[in-house]
Amino acid sequence: MSPIEGTLLQLNSVAGAFWEIVALTFRVTGTATLISAALGIPAGALLGLSKFAGRRFIVTSIYTGMGLPPVVVGLAVYLTLSRSGPLGVMEWLFTPWAMVVAQVIISFPLVAGLTMTAIEALDPDLRLQLRSLGAGRRQEVAAMLGEAREGVVAAVVAGFGGIISEVGAAMLVGGNIESQTRVLSTAIVLETRRGFFGLALGLGGALLGMAFMVNFIFLRLQGRGRWPVR
Amino acid sequence: MAGAIDDPIYHARGLRKVYGKRCVLDVEALEVRRGEVLAIIGPNGAGKSTLLRLLNFLEPASSGDLTFLGQKAKYPVPLAMRRQVTMVFQRPILLHGSVWQNVAYPLRIRKIKAGGSIDDMLGKLELSALSETSVHELSGGEFQRVALARALVLRPRVLLLDEPAANLDPQNVEKIEAIIRTIRREGHTTVVLVTHRVEQARRLADRTALLIDGSFIEIAETTRFFTQSEDPRAAAFVQGQMIY
Ligand SMILES: Nc1ncnc2c1ncn2[C@@H]1O[C@H](COP(=O)(O)OP(=O)(O)OP(=O)(O)O)[C@@H](O)[C@H]1O
Ligand SMILES: [Mg+2]
Questions:
Q1: What per-residue confidence (pLDDT) applies to B54?
Q2: Intervals of chain B under pLDDT 50
Q3: DSSP assignment of B20-64, as one string?
Q4: Considering the domain boundaries, does residue A194 fall inside one?
Q5: In chain A, what residues touch B58 (CB-CB under 8 Å)?
Q6: How far does residue A58's CA lie from ligand 1's centre (Å)?
Q7: B141 ligand 1 Cβ < 6 A
Q8: Do the domain assignments include residue A227?
Q9: Residues 98 through 137 of chain B touching chain A, CB cutoff 8 Å
Q10: Which pLDDT does position B48 carry in this prediction?
Q11: Domain span at residue A85?
Q12: Buried-most residue among A57, A207, A227, B153 (CB within 10 A)?
C-alpha cells in the first residue's frame, strides 16, 4: 500500500466514523426529543388547563427538573441501570437506550414546564370561546395548543437544546464506546483530550450545524400560518 | 317570532351566580321563547354577560335551575346539548389563521361538510374579499363580523349575541341588524341579544328585558316595554335618563 493510499484509507475511515457519530447523535437525541414531546406536551397542557390535588407539587417538581444538572441525572440513570441496580436486568447501560433514558429525563421537564407556561399565557376567555363554538374536551385542548404553538415549539426547542450538546450524562451512561455510544458531544471531549483539535473542531461544527438545522425546521413550524387547528 | 309560551326554549328559576361573596346574578324566573329575539339591556356590570355564559352552559349557576328544551342543565353539560347554543362574545376571540378557516372551525369540529355555506356566510357579511386574509390583519369591525359569521354558519338553535354591534360603523350596524331580522323571520334560531343601544332593542326584539344589579326589573313585549313600562327605572332607561 502506498502512503497516499494509506492516508486516503485513513481519511475514509475517519469520515465513516464521523458520519456514524452524526447519525447516532441524531438517532439518540431525536428519539429522546420525540419521547419528551409526546409526554411533555400533554403533561404541560394538563397542568396548564386543570386544577387538581397535588398539582402544585408536580409543578414544583417540574420546575426543579428544568434545572437538574445533567450529570446528576446521568449518575441516577447509571445506578438504576447498572448490573446491581433496580433495572439492571434490562442491560441497557452503555447502550444508546441508556442515553435516551437520561436525555428524556433531562428534557421532559423543560418541554412540560414551558408548554404549561405557554398555555397559561393564553387569553383566559379562549377556553370559553372554544366551548361556545362547540369544541369537545380534546378539541379544546388541541386548539389551545395550536394557539400556544409558538410557546409549545419553543418548549420542544429548549428540550432539544438541553440534550443535543449534553456531555456529562451521555458519557456516564453511554460510556463513549466507539461505533456504539459515541455521539458528537462525547467525541469532542475525547478528540480534544487526544489533542486532535482539528477533528474536535470539525465535530463541534457538525454539532452546531445539526442544532441549527433542527431549530430552523422547528422555527418554520412556529411561524407557519396554517397549523392544524383541530 | 314569539312561539308557544308554554314550550319555552329556556326556562330559568331562581338562577343565581355568585363570584366570591358577591352575587352578580339573581334571576327569579326567565323564559326564552322559541324563535323569539329577546333583547337584554342594562347598565355596565348588571350581569348581562354572566347570564349569557350561563345560557351557553359555559359555567354552572351557583344555585337554581336552568332548563333547555325541557332538559335540565347538569354539569358537565352533554356536548350535544351545548352544541345547540353559540355565543358571539362581547370581546370575541378568533383563532390564528385565515377568515375562512375561522368560519369553518365550528363546522369542522362537528365534522360537518362545509359545502358552500362558508362562502355564503362570508358573502352575507361582505367578507368574501377577506376570505384568505389572516385574522391579525382585520380591522375592529371586520373582526367582529368574522366572529358573527363563525357563529351564524352553524345555524344554531340559540344564538347569544353580546353587544354584536359595538365598535361598528352605522353601515355595519345596519348590516348586522338586517341579518338579525332575517334570522327572526326564518324563526329557526332563537336570539338573545344584549345591547347597550336601547333603540336597537326597539328595532329588533320581540321582547325586551331590563337587567339591573343582576335582577330583571322588567320583561315585556318590546312595544309595551317602550311605551308603558311599569317600572320607573325602565321608563328612565328608555328615555335615556339613566346614564350607563
Ligand atoms: N369571572 C368573574 N369573576 C368575578 N367577578 C366577575 C366575573 N365575571 C363577572 N364578574 C362580575 O360580575 C358583574 C357582572 O359582570 P357582567 O360582565 O355580567 O356585566 P355586564 O352586564 O355584561 O356588563 P357590561 O355592560 O359592562 O358588559 C361585574 O361586576 C363583574 O365584575
Ligand atoms: Mg358584558
A1: 98
A2: 1-4, 243-244
A3: TTEEEEEEEEEEE-TT-EEEEE--TTSSHHHHHHHHTTSS--SEE
A4: yes
A5: 128, 131-132
A6: 33
A7: no
A8: no
A9: 98, 101, 105-106, 108-110, 134
A10: 97
A11: 27-222
A12: B153
Residue at A97 is within a domain = yes
- Model confidence pLDDT, tens digit, residues A59-97: 999 999 999 999 999 999 999 999 999 999 999 999 999
Residues in contact with A190: Cβ distance below 8 Å, sequence separation at least 6, in sequence order = A176, A182
**Could you read off the pLDDT of B48-102 as tens digits, one per residue?**
999 999 999 999 999 999 999 999 999 999 999 999 999 999 999 999 999 999 9
Say yes or no to pLDDT of A194 above 50.
yes
The CA-based angle B86-B89-B92, given to 5 degrees, is 115
Question: What is the identity of the amino acid at B36?
Answer: E
The beta-carbon neighbor of B83 closest among A129, A134, A143 is A134
What ipTM score was computed for the predicted complex, to two decimals? 0.92
HSE-up of B72 (CA within 13 Å, CB side)? Answer: 7
Distance B132 CA to ligand 1 centre (A): 35
Task: Identify the pLDDT of residue A225.
Answer: 45
- Terminal Cα-to-Cα distance of chain A (whole angstroms): 64
Nearest CA in chain B to A148: B96
Number of domains in chain A: 1
| A78 alpha carbon – ligand 2 mean position (Å) | 59
Whole-angstrom Cα distance, residue B161 to residue B89? Answer: 7
The radius of gyration of chain B from alpha carbons, rounded to an integer in Å, stands at 18
| Domain assignment present for A12 | no
CATH number at residue A83: 1.10.3720.10
Distance from first CA to last CA of chain B, Å, rounded?
A: 30
Chain A closest-CA separation from residue B76 CA (Å)? 11
pLDDT at B103: 97
pLDDT for residue A226: 46
C-alpha cell at B73: 342543565
Question: Any CB–CB contact under 8 A between B22 and chain A?
Answer: no
